[in-house]
Amino acid sequence: MAEVKWIKITTNMFEDEKIDFIESLPEADAILVIWIKLLTLAGRCNAGGFIFLTEKIPYTPEMLSHTFRRPLNTIKLALKTLSELDMIEFDDNNFLKISNWEKHQNIEGLEKIREQNRLRKRRQREREKALKEGSHENSHVTSRDSHATDIEEDRELDIEEEKEIEDKEPPVPYEEIKELYNSICKSLSKVRSVSSARKKHLKARWKQFDFNIDTFKEAFKKVEASDFCRGQNKRGWKADFDWLIKNDNNIVKVLEGAYDNRTPLHNGHNNVVDYYEAAGKSPYGW
Fold first, then answer.
1. How far apart are CA 9 and CA 6, in angstroms?
2. List of long-range contacts for 153-156, beta carbons under 8 Å, 24+ apart
3. Quick one: pLDDT at residue 148?
4. What is the three-state SS of 225-281?
5. For 97-126, how does the pLDDT look when each residue is reduced to its tens digit (9 = 90+)?
6. 100 or 37: whose pLDDT is higher?
7. Do 98 and 88 form a contact (C-beta atoms < 8 A)?
8. What does the DSSP assignment read for 8-42?
9. What average pLDDT score do residues 34-53 get?
10. Would you state the pLDDT for residue 227?
């Protein structure tokens, strides 16, 4: 499986409540470095967030200690902390996986890389077969010319694949999402129309959630059930449609339960937002 050369890290990464909590720990710097290294390692594996030496051999703490050049006890502490915060998980075969991997990677981009790799391998097999069966009439063509032709063909293939991927994407159900929001979030301001700016944000969220309208439905239900999002907070702030869709973080925090009611967190605070307000920080995603 082809590795990817980049992962997605948002500029407001350190505003996340889990990262904020980690920074309060004695080994915060080491844990955060290990977290970033795990993300990059997951990108190299390019297997839906799973991290492994091979597809049959999972990484052990000892192996990660060697790979990351960190003491074994520090690795174990980091893995324990990240697991308790639901940032990583282990399957039945003890394979490590980044939770919510779609937050850190463009899933459609990864699928495109996999598809391109598959097509190139198929074309390579076809070329090898053609060479074996080829006639002598083209034997004078130099390897340099052949290489240049291959590069040009790959470029054309990339363009064709990008167009095919775009054509295969299901259209964004703008009106359906709007009506779904209005019917569920009755405590919040209604959406009258879907402007061009809203369409831009909705298109991004539509891709982010794998073209699944049920994800929007789940988020809208959680917002409507949240006392904080409905305005029961010290500032009287209310969530709205634009706040939910404007970036790739707010709606994810809602889905992860950051605004749920009666969730014990830190020092007697009922939920994440109470904790943030008591600390004089913004839980609003600003």
1. 9
2. 153/123, 154/120
3. 53
4. HCCCCCCCCCCCCCCCHHHHHCCCCHHHHHHCCCCCCCCCCCCCCCCHHHHHHHCCC
5. 998 887 766 555 556 666 666 777 788 888
6. 37
7. yes
8. ---TTGGGSHHHHHHTTSTTHHHHHHHHHHHHHHH
9. 89
10. 94
CB 222, CB 254: distance < 8 Å: yes
Instruction: Confirm whether 4 is domain-assigned.
Output: no
To the nearest 10°, the Cα dihedral for 195, 201, 202, 207?
Answer: 150
CA distances from residue 251 to 40, 208, 228, 257 in whole angstroms, order as listed: 24, 11, 14, 10
Considering the domain architecture, whether residues 154 and 216 belong to the same structural domain is answered as no
Per DSSP, the chain holds a count of helices (H) and strands (E) of 12, 4
Question: Taking the mean position of all CA atoms in its chain, how far away is CA 62?
Answer: 27
What total of structural domains would you count in the chain?
A: 3
Q: 66-84, pLDDT tens digit by residue? A: 999 999 999 999 999 999 9
* Rounded-to-integer distance, Cα 283 and Cα 260, Å: 13
At residue 142, φ and ψ (nearest 5 deg) are -80, 160
The distance of Cα 282 from the centroid of its chain, to the nearest Å, equals: 23
Give the whole-angstrom CA distance, residue 110 versus residue 43: 9
For residues 223 and 128, what is the distance between their CA atoms, to the nearest angstrom?
A: 57
Same domain, 17 and 113: no
Tell whether 99 and 151 lie within a shared domain: no
pLDDT band for position 145 (cuts 50, 70, 90) = low
Q: Which residues contact 64 (CB under 8 A, 6 or more apart)?
A: 34, 70, 75, 79
How far is Cα 51 from Cα 58, in angstroms, rounded to an integer?
7
